[in-house]
Amino acid sequence: MRTPALLALTTAAFVTVLTEALPAGVLPGMSAGLGVGESAAGQAVTIYALGTALTAIPLSAATSTWRRKRLLLTGVAGFAVANTVTALSADYPLTMVARFVAGVAAGVVWALLAGYARRLAPAGREGKAIAIVMAGIPLALSLGIPAGTFLGGLLGWRSAFGVMSAIALVLLVWIAAGVPDHPGQPRGGRLPVLRTLTVPGVAPVLVVTLVFVLAHTVLYTYVAAFLGHAGLGGSVDVVLLVFGIASMAGIGIVGARIDRALRRLTILSTVLVAVAAALMLAGSPALIYVAVALWGLGWGGVPTLLQTAAGNAGGEAADNAQAMLVTLWNAAMAAGGVAGGILLDTSGPAVFPWTLLVLLVPVLAVVVGARRHGFPQQS
């Protein structure tokens, strides 16, 4: 297994997630710097997700014949440019354009990462390779966002985006020097995107992706409101740290077992998150800490599990399946933020664990039912 190259891809995942979520950590300063309200500044996250959701599939199709390294470098360069513009811009519309471009870059990079990781791994260890790459997600959430928030408070929010640009530039050199190249697909050899849905197993994986991410996002986006309702409003940072540490443990467990037990791990992850939601209903602060740990443990490996399942099911159409997964993932994140906001206004934060439980029922049903394709039985 080519560990240095995989770690470069891990860093690419880290940059992708941190670029997306960083505005949440520096929102007050960003709002003041751009001369807009915090709700308007917060749309920097929404428009990033829209950039990814709207362009991942068409860009994947348009660049299918490109060599993979060239495409990966183009995506990372997009992050460097977009974060540089964000760091320097004092104009709100220009900043939003830069955020959309960053989302487009994310769509390119996300659609590549799992397939690239599979190619860097020996046969039978593809899932572990994807787990190494996907570790960039909890690292960004548990370490990157707090560090970016601290830096933004110390030196100003623009410095945080400037550091992100510097990381992207270093990553460009790392990829150019240390990541092997792979050819794209032959011209005319790619299955049309919509026909990928007819490949056995692809549709169940995409349904699970859409609903599971929606369920998680509804609660995660408004976790501060829920914790305030539960009497832990002053401990949001500690609770999120617990979630991040548990997520790292979850991805470690998944990485060690995924190539032999993808189906069982997906079922276990779903059940752990459901149990966490049930414990949150009790309202006890101590139980909520336990619940958040179980939530992180269950959720941490989900990106790896779903990316691996999509690649396995897609076969020769794996790139299409990955692009569709990326699109649905970001659509679910955007929808989760909207749906959670409506629920918060109409029913209050106590409804979030119930929402999570209800949405996880079809997730578990589809995973259990897709025993031949999508989430097949393994010896």
From TrEMBL:
Pfam families in the record: MFS_1
Membrane topology per record: Multi-pass membrane protein
Gene3D superfamilies associated with the record: MFS general substrate transporter like domains (1.20.1250.20)
Compartments, record wording: Cell membrane
Main location: membrane
InterPro entries to which the protein is assigned, alphabetical: MFS (IPR011701), MFS_dom (IPR020846), MFS_Efflux_Transporters (IPR050189), MFS_trans_sf (IPR036259)
Matching CDD domains: MFS_NepI_like (cd17324)
Keywords: Cell membrane, Membrane, Transmembrane, Transmembrane helix
Keyword Thylakoid: no
Transmembrane segments: 39-59, 71-90, 96-117, 129-151, 157-177, 197-218, 238-258, 265-282, 323-344, 350-370
Entry annotated with the keyword GTP-binding: no
Domain Major facilitator superfamily (MFS) profile: 5-373
PANTHER family: CHLORAMPHENICOL EFFLUX PUMP RV0191, PURINE EFFLUX PUMP PBUE
Name the record gives this protein: MFS transporter
Protein species of origin: Amycolatopsis heterodermiae
UniProt lineage: Bacteria, Bacillati, Actinomycetota, Actinomycetes, Pseudonocardiales
